[in-house]
Amino acid sequence: MTNSVDRRTQAAQKRRRLTAAAARVLHEQGVERTTLAGIAREAGVPVGNVYYYFKTKDELVRAALGEHRDRLDELTAGLDRLPAPRDRLRALIEAWVSERETTARYGCPLGTLAAELGKRADGTPAAEAGAVIRRLMDWAAAQFRAWDVPDPDAHALTLVSAYQGMSLLAHALRDPAVMTREGARLLRWLDSLRAGPGVSP
Amino acid sequence: MTNSVDRRTQAAQKRRRLTAAAARVLHEQGVERTTLAGIAREAGVPVGNVYYYFKTKDELVRAALGEHRDRLDELTAGLDRLPAPRDRLRALIEAWVSERETTARYGCPLGTLAAELGKRADGTPAAEAGAVIRRLMDWAAAQFRAWDVPDPDAHALTLVSAYQGMSLLAHALRDPAVMTREGARLLRWLDSLRAGPGVSP
Amino acid sequence: MTNSVDRRTQAAQKRRRLTAAAARVLHEQGVERTTLAGIAREAGVPVGNVYYYFKTKDELVRAALGEHRDRLDELTAGLDRLPAPRDRLRALIEAWVSERETTARYGCPLGTLAAELGKRADGTPAAEAGAVIRRLMDWAAAQFRAWDVPDPDAHALTLVSAYQGMSLLAHALRDPAVMTREGARLLRWLDSLRAGPGVSP
Amino acid sequence: MTNSVDRRTQAAQKRRRLTAAAARVLHEQGVERTTLAGIAREAGVPVGNVYYYFKTKDELVRAALGEHRDRLDELTAGLDRLPAPRDRLRALIEAWVSERETTARYGCPLGTLAAELGKRADGTPAAEAGAVIRRLMDWAAAQFRAWDVPDPDAHALTLVSAYQGMSLLAHALRDPAVMTREGARLLRWLDSLRAGPGVSP
DNA sequence: GATGAATGAGTGTTCATTCAT
DNA sequence: GATGAATGAACACTCATTCAT
User: Fold this and answer.
1) How close are the terminal C-alpha atoms of chain D, in Å?
2) How far apart are CA C180 and CA C9, in angstroms?
3) Cα dihedral sign for B12, B14, B15, B21?
4) CA→C1' distance for B34 and E3 (Å)
5) Of D17, D65, D16, D58, whose CA–CA distance to D36 is shortest?
6) By the number of CB atoms within 10 A of the CB, which of A165, B154, D62, D143 ranks highest?
């Protein structure tokens, strides 16, 4: 019994190791330039064995997206402990800025994956990427709503759009300062909200 | 004499056809999923012949980025004919929105190319993509400056960042309405500027 | 004691399940397209466990051939209960025709396996397939001999050859009617025998 | 001009070399055990180059079947020069027997390919193999018809079925004498036809 | 004796790039 | 300068077989 549990645990751990490696390498190299061998090497797993856990490369991509979704959930779960919705949003922006070095180097994991996958004729794992981004938007909208800002969905769209834009620019220009500058602006924007009918962006 | 001119002209045309095809196909399929054979086919040029005009695939990618730069220049040149800088910026935003269907399908050409290229270890054609984006920012900054808005560079960053963000979201969610909504917001934002020292977006 | 007998019995049952599954799947898919995993799945046995019963895939193939030999023996044993040799042969032909749908879909199990295995450089399991076919020929020859037909071996060869030919054609043309037509002809041929020295086919 | 013709000719020759090699190797090793590398080696062509001429392995299989069809056409075209249909059929049988060594080693190319391909779920190149076999049957039927034998189609079926059966048995038993014996019987059978209402097989 | 997991050699296929004419 | 063909180094994926427990 202990044995089988151990083994099951080990297998689950390996799966997680592979998923984590996939998430990392796919973020760093993009989908098409990433080879299964590369992910396997990174995870310390022989190539052939990868296929015991994931039947195709696309499945690994999906798993990586799932990993990013889980990390997003962890992040928002942490933020949810803050009492004020506005503070949660502030903290979210600060989290984004704190990742500026990675973002400048590799872009936002979700954004860059979505951009690459979105061009496929069959939009297979692309929809998954979109769903995770929408999850972020939904969470943000919930905060705006709790905070009683009018048109919370529009504000969520603006916020997430701004995040994707600043991440892309930071990446394209290889300049983490973009994140700092735009992050600061977003914080000011948050502060300005509800101060009146509000000029949004 | 006439002959050699003809030939030179023909060659230049072929080069242009290849560049245009590269710009289109790379936008639609992304860099890694695009094959030289595909570009050649699209341009009506035999594969082997491509190498007479471009030594490597990367050079074709660079040429495609050059094509996008040229189109950007044409666009801004057209906008420059408008007398008021604010109207130029408004027209720019309207141009973005008018491309919403293509953007929802394939993303912003510059943004998606930059995202894909930016991950390469040797940032070879990535820098080119960044340069074109910066060119757009510079033009925008010039408008804000001409309009006498304080901190024109920050405003340009915000504007272009917003464009990249809304393009990415429209693409990721396959929803052109994102472009319409955020475009309208940007126009309101423009209108609100100079109404005072202004909390920007 | 009971335990060990049970276990021995269970093991024997598993072996039989595997052999039966192998016979079926190898018939339906051919040797090379059949995977051990597929046989194991069909038999309800974990893959790793197969190797406890069969050291190699080839051994499973041999076991499948043994299964077909056993079925052949059962068939002829049943036919042997008929008093007249000619009736036994008639019944054999009728048995062949009754299998026409399966044969049109997958060919004769022995014939198709022999055809596929016969090309191997080392004729390892090929000889086994040939031996089973010869067993059928021997039984047929025995009937012709008991029936006192001259040159029973030649007649057996003709009969079995006709069976293999009609099976292959029915399979190649995916037409079970081939079995019906040629089966009827074989029956007429049987009836014509002993009507004299006889022009055979 | 000469150049381009030369090149076109060379390319066609290479294609033919590949097709011939494929026909040979597929006959000797079967479809599944044959690797593209093996065919390429046999044809003296680098592996990658094979794909310039054939997009998939299946296409090569089809080409090999086409090769066998062409050889069949050549054979029957030669036989058609004989004035009497019965002599054409006799010569056909003699041709079969003369191939007995190859047949005993590798089986009938069409028959074994049809047997292997016929099991595929998607009957892709299987239909092609069946079509070539039917072509042989059609030719044989035409001879019986010209010879004014009643029910020429049934006789053609019997003849070709006999050929496939004897080939399979010769192969399964690795005994070319099967071809000799059954070939002689077929000749006697031919002679017996029209000598009366005829006992067929 | 049973079993999920591991392993690695191969297989078809793609594609940027080069070559010969 | 043009072009069909050649080349070879990947790559994703499969599978018989072995291993550890």
Assistant:
1) 59
2) 42
3) positive
4) 45
5) D58
6) A165
Name the CA radius of gyration of chain A, rounded: 19
Query: Which residue of chain D is at minimal alpha-carbon distance from C106?
Result: D119
Position of tokens 């090699």? D21
Per-position pLDDT tens, chain C of length 201 = 456 666 667 778 889 999 999 999 999 999 999 999 999 999 999 999 999 999 999 999 999 999 999 999 999 999 999 999 999 999 999 999 999 999 999 999 999 999 999 999 887 788 999 999 999 999 999 999 999 999 999 999 999 999 999 999 999 999 999 999 999 999 999 999 964 444 444
- Give the long-range contacts of residues C9-12, CB within 8 A, separation 24 or more: C11/C53
* Protein residue nearest nucleotide F15, by CA to C1': C35
Whether the pLDDT of residue A81 is over 80: the answer is yes
First vs last C-alpha separation in chain A: 59
C48 in contact with nucleic chain F (CB within 7 A) = yes
CB under 8 Å, gap of 24 or more: what pairs does A23-28 form? A23/A63, A23/A64, A23/A67, A23/A68, A23/A109, A26/A61, A26/A64, A26/A109, A26/A113, A27/A64, A27/A106, A27/A107, A27/A109, A27/A112, A27/A113, A28/A106, A28/B119
Q: Which subunits sit against C, judged by 3+ Cβ pairs under 8 A?
A: D
| D157, D171, D186 member nearest C178 (Cβ) | D157
Q: What is the pLDDT of residues D44-98, one digit of tens each?
A: 999 999 999 999 999 999 999 999 999 999 999 999 999 999 999 999 999 999 9
Contacts for A122 with CB less than 8 Å, ≥ 6 apart:
none
Asked if B172 lies within 8 A of A116 by C-beta distance, the reply is: no
CATH level 3 topology of D2-192: Tetracycline Repressor; domain 2 (1.10.357)
Say how far apart CA C68 and CA C130 lie, in whole Å.
12
Q: Do D201 and C185 touch, CB atoms closer than 8 A?
A: yes
**How far, in Å, CA of D26 to CA of D113, rounded?**
8
Q: Residue A149: left (phi > 0), alpha (psi -120 to 50), or beta?
A: beta
| CATH class of residue range A58-192 | mainly alpha
Per the CB < 8 A criterion, the answer to whether B137 and A94 are in contact is no
- Are the C-beta atoms of D89 and D190 separated by less than 8 Å? yes
Q: Using the CB atoms, write b or e for A8-27: b if 16+ within 10 Å.
A: eeeeeebbeebbbbbbbbbb
Positions of chain E reached by protein Cβ under 7 A: 1-21
pLDDT per residue over B133-153, tens digit each?
999 999 999 999 999 999 999
Token representation of residue C182? 């040629």
Who among residues 44-83 of A has its Cβ near strand F, under 7 Å? 47-48, 51, 55-58
Buried b or exposed e, range D18-50, using 16+ CB within 10 angstroms:
bbbbbbbbbbbbbbebbebebbbebbebeeeeb
Task: Give residue for tokens 């041709």.
Answer: D95
Closest CA to B67 of B115, B141, B132: B132
Buried b (16+ CB within 10 A) or exposed e, D137-150: bebbbbbbbebebe
Cβ-based neighbour number of residue B132 at 10 Å: 23
Reference C140, options C92, C172, C185, C107; nearest CA is C92
Look at D198 and B175; give whichever has higher pLDDT: B175
Residues B104 and B174: beta-carbon distance below 8 Å: yes
Helix, strand, coil fractions of chain B, as percent rounded to 5: 80, 0, 20
**Separation between Cα atoms, residue A120 and residue A89, nearest integer Å:** 33
Handedness of CA C8, C11, C17, C23 (dihedral sign): negative
Nucleotides of F under 7 A from a protein CB: 1-21
Q: Kindly report which amino acid residue has its CA closest to the C1' atom of nucleotide E9.
A: A48
Q: Which CATH architecture has domain B57-192?
A: Orthogonal Bundle (1.10)
